[in-house]
Write the C-alpha cells for this entry.
Amino acid sequence: MKQLSKRMAWPAALVLLLAASVSAQQPAEDKPAETAAQPAGEKPAAQPAAEQPATSPAGKPSATASAPGYELKLRSLEERVNELKEKIFRTKARIMQMQEVVVSGSIGAGSRIVLVHRNEMGGAFKLVSVQYALDSQPIFKKVDVDGDLDGIEQKEIYNANIVPGNHNIAVQMVYQGQGFGFFSYVKGYRFKVKSSYTFTAEEGKITRIDIVGFERGGITTSLEERPAVRYDIKIEKLTPDRARTLQQKTEEAG
C-alpha cells in the first residue's frame, strides 16, 4: 500500500512542476491589468485627457486660436499709422506757419528759392519729357505734346519760401535723337539724363537757380555724350516787401 501511494505521488508532483513552468513562461501582457478597487455601484473615475492645441481637420492650428493675436497686431499697426499721419499733419502745419511768418516779415525776410527750367539743346535733340524734384518732393513734370515742351526756352517752375539750410534738386530729362547727316543713326533713339544738385538757402536771400539742358562738347564729342544739365545760380537780398511781392506773383500764377 505504501509503495502504491509513492507511485501515485510522483506523477502528481511532475504535473504540478510542469504547470508551474508553463505559468512562469506566459508573456506579461497576458496578465490582466490591475485596477484599483471601486466601491460597489460606482463607475470608475474618468482620467483627464492631455491638453492639446486646437487643430483643424488637416492637423493645422485652428484659425480661431490665432485670431485674437492677429487682431491685436492689426490694431497696433493701425494706431502707429494714425500716429504717423498726425505727425505729418503737424509738420505741414508748422511749415505753413513758418511760410506765413516769413511773408508777413515778423521774423525778418526769411529765405526764398526760385527754380527756372531752360532749354538750350541743339536741333539734334528734342526734349520729350522732364521731371523736377526738390528735397525728394516732385515739383514739376511734363511730357511733350506736339512740341509744347521742347519749344519752351525758359519757364519758372517753382517760386516759394524755403527753410534756410541745405537742399537738393533732382532732375531727369529725356531727349529723342533728331540725327542728321553723319549722326542720322541716332534718329529716334532716346537719351535719359539724370542729375542732382545740392545748394544752401541763406537767411534773408533769394536763391535763383536756372536748370539748363544743353549740348556739351564739340565736333569731336559723340552725339550720345552731348546731352547734359548745368545749374546757373544767382543770389540776391530778400526784403519783406520783396518776399510779399514774390508770393503775390506765385498766387496769381496759380
Remarks:
- The mean pLDDT is 74.
- Residues 63-104 form the longest helix (42 residues).
